[in-house]
Design goal:
alpha/beta, two-stranded antiparallel ribbon, 302 residues, globular, seven-stranded mixed β-sheet, 29% helix, Rossmann fold
Length: 302
C-alpha cells in the first residue's frame, strides 16, 4: 500500500495489482516515465514477483524486472520461465488384492491432489477387492496374465497394445504380485513404479510380500521399517529407489500392528510420489538416481 501511494503521486493512473491468479503468472508492465527512476532512488521498497501453479512448466521469455536499489534504480532484462500447462497424465494401476493404495490414489485424483486420472486397472485376480472397487467406479478392468485358468487374460504384447490404446503415461503397481514382463518394461522405460512394505534393499525379493515382510522384519530385530517406492526392472524389488518413509518397529509389535502403521504411510507416500510424477517433478541424477523436485522450492530435492 505504501508503494501504491508513492507511485500515485507520479503516475495518477498507474496501480500495482494486488492479487494474483492461480493459473497464470503475475506480471506487470512498468511505466517508462523518468520520474519512476527517481522514486526508486529514494524508496527501496518496490518489487515484482511471479507465481507458478504446480501443474505448469516453464519456457523462457524475456521480460523486465524492477530491481530495488538504494543508489541507482535500474530495469534489468532477465530470462523468465513462463508457466505452460502440464498435460494431465493417464495412469494404469496393477493390483492383486484389496487395492487400498489404488483407492488412495484414485481418491487423490478425484480430489485434485494428483494431476492425473486412473484410466484402467490391471489384475491377475478378477474377483479381488481392487477389481470390484474399479468396477464400482466405472474404471475398466483388464485381466493379466493369460493362464490356463484365465484364458481370457491378455498376453504381454496384447497388454502393451491395450495400454498404448488408452494412452497410458505411467504404470503404478499397488500390491500386484506377478513379475512384470520384459515387454512391458521396454515399452514403458522409467515409467513403472512399485511400492514395497519394507525399507529396500532389506526384506525384498521373491517371496517377500504382505505379512511375510513384517514378520521377517520383527524376527530380525530391525528397529525401523517402512514403505519404499521404486522403479520396476525385470526382477523383484531391485529397481532404482525413488522414495522411502521410516516407521519405527516397537518392542512389542506384532506383524499386524507394524503392517497397519506401514500401510498408513504407504497411502500418503504413494499419493505424494504420484503427484510429483504427474507434475513432471522427477529428476534423474547423472549417476542414475531418481530425485523428486520440491513443489514449493524447485532448488530442493528429496
Amino acid at each position: 500500500m505504501e508503494a501504491q501511494n508513492l507511485l500515485s503521486g507520479f503516475f495518477p493512473n498507474y496501480k500495482i495489482p494486488l492479487t494474483r491468479t492461480s493459473k497464470k503468472p503475475f506480471s506487470s508492465s512498468l511505466p517508462s516515465n523518468p520520474s519512476f527512476h527517481s522514486l526508486l532512488q529514494s524508496h527501496n521498497c518496490v518489487s515484482f514477483k511471479t507465481h507458478h501453479s504446480p501443474c505448469y512448466k516453464g519456457s523462457l521469455k524475456k521480460i523486465f524486472f524492477c530491481v530495488n536499489a538504494s543508489e541507482n534504480a535500474v530495469l534489468e532484462e532477465k530470462d523468465y520461465k513462463r508457466p505452460q500447462v502440464v498435460k494431465r497424465k493417464k495412469l494404469a494401476v496393477f493390483v492383486s488384492g484389496g487395492g487400498s493404495n489404488f483407492k488412495s490414489i484414485h481418491d487423490a485424483c478425484f480430489e485434485g491432489l494428483v494431476h492425473g486420472d486412473i484410466v484402467v486397472l490391471v489384475t491377475n485376480k478378477p474377483d479381488c477387492g481392487g477389481a470390484e472397487y474399479a468396477k464400482n467406479k466405472e474404471i475398466p478392468v483388464v485381466l493379466f496374465p493369460r493362464t490356463k485358468d484365465a484364458t481370457d487374460g491378455l498376453s504381454p504384447g496384447d497388454l502393451v497394445a491395450a495400454l498404448r490404446s488408452l494412452e497410458v503415461d505411467f504404470i503404478l503397481l499397488a500390491g500386484y504380485l506377478k513379475l512384470i514382463p520384459a515387454e512391458l518394461i521396454r515399452a514403458y522405460p522409467q515409467s513403472i513404479l512399485n511400492i514395497h512394505p519394507s525399507l529396500l534393499p532389506a526384506f525384498g525379493g521373491k517371496g517377500y510380500y504382505g505379512m511375510k515382510v513384517h514378520k521377517a522384519v520383527i524376527a530380525s530385530g530391525a528397529r525401523y521399517s517402512g514403505p519404499t517406492i521404486h522403479f520396476v526392472d525385470e526382477h523383484y524389488d531391485t529397481g532404482r529407489i525413488l522414495a522411502q518413509r521410516v516407521v519405527p518397529v516397537l518392542a512389542n509389535d506384532t506383524a499386524e500392528e507394524l503392517a497397519a502403521r506401514v500401510l498408513h504411510e504407504e497411502h500418503q507416500l504413494y499419493v505424494e510420489v504420484t503427484a510429483a510424477l504427474c507434475e513432471e517433478r522427477l529428476i534423474w541424477r547423472e549417476d542414475g538416481v531418481p530425485l523428486i523436485q520440491n513443489r514449493e522450492n524447485p532448488n530442493e530435492y528429496s
